Amino acid sequence: MADTLVMERAARPARLARMGAGLRRIGKSRAFVIGAVLFAFICLAATIGPLFTSVSPNALAIRSRFQPPSMEFWLGTDNLGRSVLSRVLWGARLSLGIGFAVVLINAAFGVLLGALAGYYRKLDNILMRVADALMAFPAVLLAIGIASALGPSAVTAIVALSVVYVPRTARVVRASVLVVRELDYVHAARACGATDRRIVMKHILPNCMAPLIVQLSFVFAYAILSEAVLSFLGLGAPPTVPSWGVLISEGRAYMREAAWLTIVPGAAIAITVLGLNLLGDGLRDVLDPRMKVEQG
Amino acid sequence: MTAPLLAVDGLVKHFALSSENWFRRERPTVRAVDGVSFTLGAGETLGLVGESGCGKSTIGKLVLQLIPATAGAVRFEGRDLVDIPAAELRRLRREIQVVFQDPQGSLNPRMSVAEIVLEPLVAQGEKLTPALREYAGDLLERVGLTRAHATRHPHEFSGGQRQRIGIARAIAPKPKLIICDEAVSALDVSIQAQVINLLMDLQDEMGLSYLFIGHDLAVVRHVADRLAVMYLGRIVETGPKHTVYTAPRHPYTQALLASVPVSHPRQRRARVGVRGEIPSPLAPPPGCHFHPRCPFAQDICRNEAPPLREIAADHRVSCHFAETIVPAKG
Amino acid sequence: MSPLLSLRNVSVAFGGQPVVRDVSFDVASREIVGLVGESGSGKSVTALAILGLLPPTAEITGEIVFEGRDLPALGRRQMRRLRGAGIGMIFQEPMSSLNPVFTVGDQIIEAIRVHQRISRRAAADRAVELLEKVGIPAPRRRLEDYPHQMSGGMRQRVMIAIALSCSPRLLIADEPTTALDVTIQAQLLDLLAEVREEFGTAVVLITHNMGVIAEIADRVVVMYASRVVEEAGVFPLFDHPRHPYTRGLMASTPAMDMEAPRLVTIPGGTPTPGNLPPGCNFAPRCGYAIPPCAEGVPPMDAFADGQRAACIRARELGPAAPR
Lengths: 296, 330, 323
Prior knowledge:
The structure holds three protein chains of three kinds. Chain A is mainly α. In chain A, 74% of the residues lie in helices and 0% in strands. In chain A, 47% of the residues are buried. Chain A has helices at residues 2-28, 30-52, 84-119, 121-136, 139-150, 154-180, 184-191, 196-204, 209-232, 244-252, 260-287. By secondary structure, chain B is of the alpha/beta class. In chain B, 29% of the residues lie in helices and 22% in strands. Chain B has helices at 56-63, 86-92, 113-122, 130-142, 159-171, 189-206, 217-223, 241-246, 251-259, 299-303; strands spanning 6-16, 29-40, 45-49, 71-76, 79-80, 96-99, 177-181, 209-214, 226-231, 234-240, 309-312, 315-317. In chain B, the strands form two sheets. Chain B has an eight-stranded mixed β-sheet, with helices on both faces. Chain B has a four-stranded antiparallel β-sheet with strand order 2-1-4-5, with helices on one face. Chain B is globular and about 70 Å long. Chain C is of the alpha/beta class. Chain C has two domains: 5-224, 3-Layer(aba) Sandwich (Rossmann fold), CATH 3.40.50; 244-323, no CATH class. Chain C has an eight-stranded mixed β-sheet with strand order 6-7-8-3-9-10-12-11, sandwiched between helices. Chain C has a four-stranded antiparallel β-sheet with strand order 2-1-4-5, with helices on one face. In chain C, a hairpin with a 2-residue loop joins strand 4 (58-66) and strand 5. In chain C, helix 4 crosses helix 5 (120-133) and helix 4 packs parallel to helix 7 (152-164). Chains B and C meet through helix 5, helix 6, helix 7 and helix 9 of B and helix 8, helix 9, helix 10 and helix 11 of C.
């Protein structure tokens, strides 16, 4: 008894040490560090930024229309005199929120469908043919189609983007399930009489996480980009809610006179997507050393 | 006479290739296992040897019921595993465990050693109690590791130690039969010897039976009581170890034994090896599969597959000329 | 007569971490020298060092002299010319040494023409001749095959043909038969012996398999944890190994002519290059170890017949009983 307790207690520092080693390895990837910093900056701005901007994003001030960036309005004002800084920060909440929702739905359904297709070979044909059919359409076109059928709203954007990206995530999960299911420890578990559920949950999925996490970081980036496209076309968030795509769409008309109206949200999108892509590349290097190019 | 622990009867496994092409009616099939029968008694070790592609590992998977058999029976203590209810099969799985070749791939990297070792019990529905964890420590000590290893993860161990963990997992549910699929092939010689000794000690203590699948004839000779030699999906010769090694009657067995490197340079000799290579299992030669490489082949060998015949007590050979072929010196 | 290849105090380190230490041995012309050891012994790194194939990050010290030239001092172009023309090589997995998108014929012809200025047609004839020499049936037809269409044994024969294409004086073979079935291994060992007879090529045969050594080696160099522990002619070595590690290695190899109930084992596991014990690397696993063993690296002690062993007790232990 006492011995088991000792074992339990000894487990914790060992696990911490392992995590420490993992973090050190991640820290060595420059892409990951830069990406993480950029992405953290955007997330921080989205969460606490709006608390510090005194001006509401929808506060009209007709007299101060089209103010270029100044001490009063750091990033200028738009055609209705609303603070661009304030609107971009609020927009970050919506854009990141939609991206995050798409990632969660991708994680849930991508894993479920990918695991089913990879593990039950009979389901594979059906599921993957459906996935192929969905993936045959260009991603943005499909999202536009779905969004225009459902009518513009933030929820529409989330649904449309999930339909577009879940098959891609499911493919990634299925591919790693197909590899892991043939490993000897899975055979050993089967030979022990483990149930299918246990085999998938304990033995297969935990070992498929690395490519999934990398994939999700890219889905996040694509989702933010595609949401901007949808909003720009008026198929995403309604104009009263300033998502980044909406901001660009609104600013488009005044590009000559007030370029900051499009440049600022555009830059926000670019920084976020760049950050997420670097993050994903870095994670892939760390989690999947086989894909890394030999150095030296 | 009591029923043997394991009786494999007329086992057949065909793999259909390339399911991708929906338009081609006839798919090429590999006859990986083509009518194999053997028995294994309690406490006994049967060495299953042959070269790559002979189907020996497929037999291991069939006995473990990891893949469905095309035809034939796998009787464990008289019950045919091929058609018993799933629930009963699941319970019987406690009795048959496996040790794989690759110490890298045979342990789940996300689990602690204790979890890995106890998996056969937990998978059967037992709760992970402190008492059970205690048992994991006992098992680890039994295979030459320490209790403190229980909380570690597989990547912290050397190949030999991982193989010990795999063995601890196999003996955890106190099985009657362990399939050793190339269980020591990937290990360095000095470690291999340790693991072989461990397997043999465990057999004595627990009365285990082993189906020992291997390609190293010297290793198999060391652990096995009886031997079955496979070639392209069929058993060509089977019998007590001593008989098969010292007086092999099938030309393939003779060639195989002659190919084993000598253990002292003084034994170097002009080799009576074998010509050519193993044909593709997709298109095995007609008649006796070995005839294109056989120095004694006659017309009958090209047309008729020789049955596995008993030519002496417990010594079976699948060769039309088993009686006339001089036993090569082992 | 000076040896064909001579290693003197060769050490290799990666990032300050030595993986080969103080390795010295000679290879005479037409000689087959077995370099034997378990994983992590440094045998493969030694081979790559001879071939000049270690990455630039490797720190190599000591002398590797081939036909009077110090190899580490050669430029990369000279070294490349020497590989193939002077020194041939074959590796464990021929599939990864052959380019999958070119036919076998293309690759042999290419290898021939890199070193010899002859026409494609003449090179093709030479390729057929070589494939025939290494025992490939219907060689002219096989020129059109891609590597994946051949079996492992056939691919290894092709590798040997490529290695022989420029009549090298030395062949370095790193575990050439490890991935092959035993009947094919036997055929290839015979082929290597024939190659030596016919072409007069010396061979450094790297293996972990004592049986392969017993089959064709003339002399044996035993490595353990980055150092050479014993060197001897193959008969003296198998008759009376001097170093406790060699003894243990031989005793723990199951043999066809032995029916002992238990194998003799070497306790413990091989140390990793990062944490070698002080003094004799083998001392912690050695049944004969005494306190002085941990104090310094034992020097090579010379015995009759050119047998050498790095063990301070080798002389007092006497030769092990023959098996």
